[in-house]
Amino acid sequence: MTRGPFDRLRLIQKQINERPRLREWLTRLRHGARDVDVMLFKRKVRINTLRENGYYRASRLAHANSLLRDETLVMQRVSMMLGDGVTFVDVGANIGIFSSVIADAQRLFRDFRVIAFEADPATYARLRVNAERFGFEAVNVALAAQAGELDFATGAVSGIATRRDRAGRAHIAGRGFTVAARRLDSFDLPGRLVIKIDVEQMELDVLEGARGLFERERVSAVYLDEFDDKAAVLDFLASYGFELLAPQRLTPFAPGRRALLAVRRTR
Q1: Cα separation of 43 and 2, whole Å?
Q2: Which residues pair with 141 in a beta bridge?
Q3: Residue range 229-243, pLDDT digits in tens
Q4: 3-state secondary structure of 179
Q5: Which domains are present in the chain?
Q6: CA geometry: angle 235, 249, 232, nearest 5 deg
Q7: Which residues neighbour 138 within 8 Å (Cβ) at sequence distance 6 or greater?
Q8: CB-side exposure of 86: number of CA atoms within 13 Å?
Q9: How do 219-225 and 259-263 pair as beta strands?
Q10: Stretch 139-159: mean pLDDT
Q11: CA 82 – CA 173 distance, rounded (Å)
């Protein structure tokens, strides 16, 4: 039987794992055997490059990859907010990595729902496939402060689409799309809302379009990743009684922080 490259890799790994002295010698030869500090899940932890070699290799991979370095913490913090009767709202969902994982919570919580919004029609086509696979709802619309249409600029990758008037050096001249825009509070969203927003400089627009939900105290938590209009965003959330936290250690949010977790304490 012909073995593929992954089958051969697993076979070699199994043989090495079953020969611990050889494994130890090879690991020491490649990575040494010293205590070092590495970053894992946004935490500086002490490990040994030999005894905790898996953690050492994982830290190196995470350092070189933004998904592993940054997004795992987002997933952890958002997951803390889930429960019965919650709707997770993924704004700027891209192809739905967060929604695909969090949709599994439907097996744990009653009346739990996931709805993902993506403005770019081409990206949405892939999001829709993932929504069907993992059991969540996907909507091709831009969320904004006012209903209508919005012109977007795009670049080399899908994750940087933004309003054309906010385009920068990462965007390609003449490349983009026009899409319908709606307010978030115009949608029928049941239960308590946990909202993740990643919309490339349009965060305040999304919040303004959700004002009706905030006024009715429907929103339990908001996660924003690297947001613009910081003073206005912070004022908006604070005015509705949200506690503003830095996601890394859940300490009070301070100027200069990149991401924000806003939590509304239940009475």
Answers
A1: 43
A2: none
A3: 889 999 999 999 999
A4: strand
A5: 26-64 (no CATH), 69-263 (3.40.50.150)
A6: 10
A7: 93, 96, 99, 115, 116, 117, 118, 124, 127, 128, 130, 131
A8: 23
A9: antiparallel
A10: 94
A11: 41
| The two three-digit tokens of residue 11, written as one number | 């076979």
Average pLDDT taken over every residue of the chain: 89
Residue 109 tokens, joined: 């919580």
Helix (H, G, I), strand (E, B) or coil at 110: coil
Which helix (H) or strand (E) element contains residue 204? helix 203-208
Q: Which residue has 């906010």 as its token pair?
A: 166
Q: Is 7 exposed, middle or buried (0-12, 13-18, 19+ CB in 10 A)?
A: exposed
Ordered strands of the 162-163 beta sheet = 142-143, 171-182, 148-155, 162-163
3-state DSSP of 118-140: CCCHHHHHHHHHHHHHHCCEEEC
Is residue 87 a contact partner of residue 59, using CB atoms and an 8 Å limit? no
Please tell me the least confidently modeled range out of 55-69, 163-177, 191-205. Answer: 55-69
| Residue 264 amino acid letter | R
pLDDT at 196 over 90: yes
Phi, psi of 24 (to 5 degrees): -60, -40
82 in Cβ contact with 89 (< 8 Å):
no
Checking if the pLDDT of 70 tops 70, the result is no
**Residue 160: what pLDDT?**
86
- The identity of residue 249, as a single letter, is R
Beta-carbon contacts of 125 under 8 Å, excluding residues fewer than 6 positions away, are none
Number of H helices, E strands in the chain: 10, 14
pLDDT interval class at 216 (50, 70, 90): very high
Q: Tokens 């983009």 correspond to what residue?
A: 176
